[in-house]
Design goal:
This protein is of the alpha+beta class. The protein folds into four domains: about 90 residues, conserved putative lor/sdh protein from methanococcus maripaludis s2 fold, CATH 2.40.420.20; about 100 residues, Efflux pump adaptor protein, beta barrel domain (Elongation Factor Tu (Ef-tu), domain 3, Beta Barrel), CATH 2.40.30.170; about 60 residues, RNA polymerase II/Efflux pump adaptor protein, barrel-sandwich hybrid domain (OB fold (Dihydrolipoamide Acetyltransferase, E2P), Beta Barrel), CATH 2.40.50.100; about 90 residues. Helices cover about 25% and strands about 40% of the residues. The chain contains four helices and 22 strands. The strands form four sheets. A six-stranded antiparallel β-barrel has the order 2-11-15-13-12-16. Strands 3-10-8-5 form a four-stranded antiparallel beta sheet, with no helix packed on it. A hairpin with a 7-residue loop joins strand 12 and strand 13. The chain is elongated, with a radius of gyration of 45 Å.
């Protein structure tokens, strides 16, 4: 009976899972989703208002600069004149005709005045030759003649302006007609590449400047953009290495950070939370042959390396236990646990750098339970 009680009083071993601390490379990354996009996009727009004909180009079709016709447009006839517009135009014609008649009358009056001034100048000169008038009278006659001639020129300009206004007003009454039917304006590709998007497929009327299609070269001009949280973007520097994963291929692609944009923007997360995001632009470091299957607007996952070391002592982050303001780990010491204070350096989601307090090769407890205390008897669970 006493033996049974003694066995019952023995401490129960605490089951634990262990992993070894190792020495090797460690990298800290900022992970997020990204999207591929063509860096230089060219939007082909309608050069005039008219009817764009149906396009035979499909997204992905190659185009050659200056040779491939990417759009065909036919000018449309102007709109017909309604009754109100016609009445306003006819009133404008009457007003312009009256203004022209007044200008012509003014020209006739100025012409008569200049003839009278010239006749008076001739008489004053004849009297001056006979010494029957003064020099001042002759000068006054010459001045009057010059003023009358300037009045004629001004009246002639007024008549020319009146005729132009009359023609302009009369043009508003012209009946719209379709001229040069069958003549079509063709637009060729501005660059070599492929059609990225076809914004207008069927025949329709478009305004001048309306976009018709987008052209780019995803084979050689592809980049990655990822909108990182601003708190993560401040840790990313141009030139940082990037690992591109989950893009559909059987290998991890290499890229580098080209630019962190200086301004951020607000984005609503899937949970409805406002977040400040910053676009980070990346270029592929691998040859184009490695990522040729990617196109414009494809989803990828990026891991941007913000710290990397080739040789450090590392443990799983699940082995770290808070000890005041510092950290500790539980190591296996025979059949007992031993709590060891460690100095933790860099860490990522899976592993942490141990700068001091622990050597490589020690067995550390991962996911320690509340029963894990210094000196506790343990039982190491077998790995599946």
């Amino acid at each position: 009976m006493g033996a049974v009680v003694a066995v019952a009083m023995l401490p129960t071993p605490v089951p634990v899972d262990v992993m070894p601390s190792t020495r090797g490379p460690l990298a800290v990354t900022v992970d997020d989703e990204g999207e591929t996009r063509v860096r230089h996009r060219y939007v082909v727009s309608a050069p005039l208002t008219g009817r764009v004909l149906r396009s035979e180009l499909e997204p992905g079709d190659p185009v050659v600069r200056g040779r491939t016709v990417v759009a065909r447009l036919r000018a449309e006839a102007p709109a017909l004149i309604d009754a109100r517009t016609r009445a306003e135009a006819e009133a404008g014609v009457a007003t312009a005709r009256a203004a022209l008649g007044r200008a012509e009358a003014e020209l006739r009056r100025a012409t008569a005045a200049v003839e009278l001034a010239r006749a008076d100048l001739r008489r004053q000169r004849e009297l001056a030759a006979a010494q029957l008038t003064t020099v001042q009278a002759v000068d006054a006659a010459e001045s009057n003649a010059q003023a009358a001639e300037e009045g004629v020129r001004a009246a002639e300009f007024a008549v020319a302006a009146g005729r132009s206004q009359f023609d302009q007003a009369n043009a508003r009454l012209m009946v719209p007609t379709i001229e040069a039917s069958g003549r079509v304006l063709t637009v060729t590709a501005p660059v070599d590449g492929v059609v990225l998007k076809r914004l207008r497929e069927s025949e329709s009327v478009v305004n001048a400047g309306e976009p018709l299609l987008e052209i780019g070269n995803p084979v050689t001009d592809l980049e990655i953009v990822s909108d990182l949280l601003s708190t993560d973007a401040v840790r990313v520097k141009p030139g940082a290495k990037v690992r591109v994963e989950q893009w559909g291929g059987d290998r991890v692609l290499a890229a580098t950070v080209r630019r962190v944009e200086p301004s951020g923007f607000t984005k609503i997360s899937a949970l409805g939370v406002e977040e400040q995001r910053v676009n980070v632009l990346m270029d592929f470091a691998d040859p184009a042959e490695a990522w040729k299957a990617l196109g414009d607007g494809y989803r990828v996952e990026v891991r941007i390396v913000i710290w990397e070391e080739a040789e450090v002592v590392r443990v799983p982050t699940s082995a770290l236990v808070r000890q005041g303001d510092g950290w500790s780990v539980f190591v296996v010491n025979g059949d007992r646990l031993q709590r060891v204070t460690v100095e933790v350096g860099q860490r990522n989601a899976e592993e942490a750098e141990i700068r001091s307090g622990l050597d490589a090769g020690r067995q550390v407890v991962v996911h320690p339970s509340d029963q894990a205390i210094d000196g506790a008897l343990i039982e190491v669970r077998a790995r599946p």
